[in-house]
Amino acid sequence: MRIDHLIGGKSVKGSDYFETVNPATQEVLAEVASGGEAEVNAAVAAAKEAFPKWAGMPAPERAKLIRKLGDLIAKNVPEIAQTETNDCGQVIAQTGKQLVPRAADNFYYFAEMCTRVDGHTYPTPTHLNYTLFHPVGVCALISPWNVPFMTATWKVAPCLAFGNTAVLKMSELSPLTAARLGELALEAGIPPGVLNLVHGYGKEAGEPLVAHPDVRAISFTGSTATGNRIVKSAGLKKFSMELGGKSPFVIFEDADLDRALDAAVFMIFSNNGERCTAGSRILVQQSIYADFAAKFAERARRITVGDPLDEKTIVGPMISQAHLAKVRSYIELGPKEGATLLCGGLEAPSNLPNRVKKGNYVTPTVFADVDNRMKIAQDEIFGPVACLIPFRDEAHAIELANDIQYGLSSYVWTENIGKAHRVAAAVEAGMCFVNSQNVRDLRQPFGGTKASGTGREGGTWSYEVFCEPKNVAVSL
Ligand code: NAD
């Protein structure tokens, strides 16, 4: 199978192609067009040409087309979920039941929202000020390989709904479902040129896209290193940067331990541990630390690692052999830094089905006695590797939670309501979940602080990147 660019509603062949590989089997799934400056220029030109008509379409009409795209995704969930699972190794229980259906919801949500964009008025005795929210223009949407379809739609839906046009660049490691999104957008009646797709590598396709003078806004999700690079080359564009994380999952001695255990296991091992909001630093109060560690490791040992197409599988393969090597290097490093390996380690998971024997698998791994300054505690491993770190009291928990370059998500578990609010306020993160795993509401501001990024998306927060506010002052 060949996957080509989508530019101005037409399939455009690549001058070169790269392979996308199933990380569970190493089977080549498709040859994908590898774009560069020429394809980026053509895609941006197509988006620029389509912009005035799309932006000028009454919002209810745009909403109808956006909703139709949601319907087409909803109708094709099993097919899209299977493609996504094959392309990136995310287990089918997640892609089929959660992530692809949520992608359809992204379109439903923003279809409704774009019909309700209103402004503000600031009357004075001499002037009436009011706000208009205009679309920005051509937007560059860049997505990582983890949760690729959900992330792409999370960007495309508000971008298009608010009247912008887009050039979407997926990760070279997981481009397949976005190609399907492009087809469905045309089928929904979204005019050619409104959504364009350029496939390819970051250096060849991503760099010219973010530097293009006709691109007015960038919505980027990916690593902190790439985010930093993009900010430097973007110049005066609007942007939102959703970057890496190493989120603290803080459990006090008065927490509901069973629920905290379930949530802690879910937040580090689901999505193969390849999750930006993973609770990868599990801070546990000293008095319950030994008990918690034993129970946590016991649950980790029971996790089903296997074929991502099997509904019962919890942990599938890592996205690539390079990423597998990176995750394994941290598993090797842990004991050298002084951490205690409670379960997992370098040995491949036992009992892998034949079909996936060559997959990029890591056994769910738990390190105890982790010091927050160790590299395994400070670096984003982005795999099924948990670090258990003891703390003394509330002040110590806050100190450890914040002693990190990242600030994406955070989790606090306590039955003491005052303590919950105090820690939630003190933790340096864009999001804090109290007695809960990460539960996304499309209205909430999603994003991080410190090295986890800048800008927020979701609900009216998406105006920040996808709308240009204008104040009109009328002399009375
Ligand atoms: P990455 O930074 O390597 O790549 C992300 C995207 O950027 C890819 O499409 C890539 O091709 C492109 N790219 C690379 N170099 C570029 C350049 N110079 N200019 C323009 N584009 C370029 O990240 P990844 O490895 O694909 O994804 C994993 C990272 O994403 C992790 O750090 C994870 O935490 C983060 N992430 C963050 C969120 C969030 O919402 N904060 C969500 C998911 C993933």
From TrEMBL:
Keywords: NAD, Oxidoreductase. InterPro entries: Ald_DH/histidinol_DH, Ald_DH_C, Ald_DH_CS_CYS, Ald_DH_CS_GLU, Ald_DH_N, Aldehyde_DH_dom, DH_HpaE. Gene3D superfamilies: Aldehyde Dehydrogenase, Chain A, domain 1, Aldehyde Dehydrogenase, Chain A, domain 2. The keyword Ion transport does not apply. Pfam families: Aldedh. The active site is at E242. Coiled coil: none annotated. It comes from the Bacteria. GO terms for biological process: 4-hydroxyphenylacetate catabolic process. PROSITE patterns: ALDEHYDE_DEHYDR_CYS, ALDEHYDE_DEHYDR_GLU. Residues 16-472 form the Aldehyde dehydrogenase domain. One of its GO terms (molecular function) is aldehyde dehydrogenase [NAD(P)+] activity. CDD domains: ALDH_F8_HMSADH. Belongs to the aldehyde dehydrogenase family. This is 5-carboxymethyl-2-hydroxymuconate semialdehyde dehydrogenase. It comes from Variovorax gossypii. The lineage of its organism: Bacteria, Pseudomonadati, Pseudomonadota, Betaproteobacteria, Burkholderiales.
